[in-house]
Amino acid sequence: MIHRPDRDRDKDRSTREGHYGRQSSSGAKTHSPSSSAACPPPGQEASYPQILPSDRKRSILVKRKGKTDASFGLPPDKRSLKQHLSLGAINLDKTSGPTSHEVAAWVKRILEVDKAGHSGTLDPKVTGILPVLLGDATRIMETLLLAGKEYICLMRLHKPVPKKQIMEVCQEFMGPIFQKPPLKSSVVKELRIRTIYYLDVLEIEEQHVLMRVGCEAGTYIR
Prior knowledge:
Layout: E1 2-3, H1 13-20, H2 81-86, E2 89-94, H3 100-111, E3 116-118, E4 128-134, H4 141-145, E5 149-156, H5 163-172, E6 175-179, E7 192-205, E8 208-215
Antiparallel strand pairs: 1-6, 2-4, 3-4, 5-8, 6-7, 7-8
């Protein structure tokens, strides 16, 4: 279930805030609507940056220059195999079929490491990059979990729709949206706000639409 926040203005704001601010069963606190999550006026959706936040250029402020102390670690190309296995990360291209947990368990068994964890979750039928962290590298898992995600999706319509209409509808989903995962999903079924950074239509063939979606972590894309 996905719809725009500005379509629910007739609902009592305080009631909505009380709902969105409560604790979920997993212990995570859902987002609370605010002015920073307001949708843009019609026709201004294209002003959103067409890249993920982590890909945006940032200014670097240098306070002073220094040298790297080898005792704090080595560059990746100079690390031993043992170091790679204890502080490594694998960008694994998951095939359709296994669960993300199964893939991480296979990596742990094959490499014979003490710990192996996956950042994020891909459904069994979904293919794509699944980061698997090894050993002490699992400590940075939260950083990857909070990073933006990109999906390539194939949408099937009931019948062919004019390209102009498809583009107009896609623009309505730019920026912050309300989203509630379906009942069959494995995540908490609570209404939450997620941000769509970009939604590009790559190709249209009859009733099939190929799209590229850049979104906030935790967005349900199916």
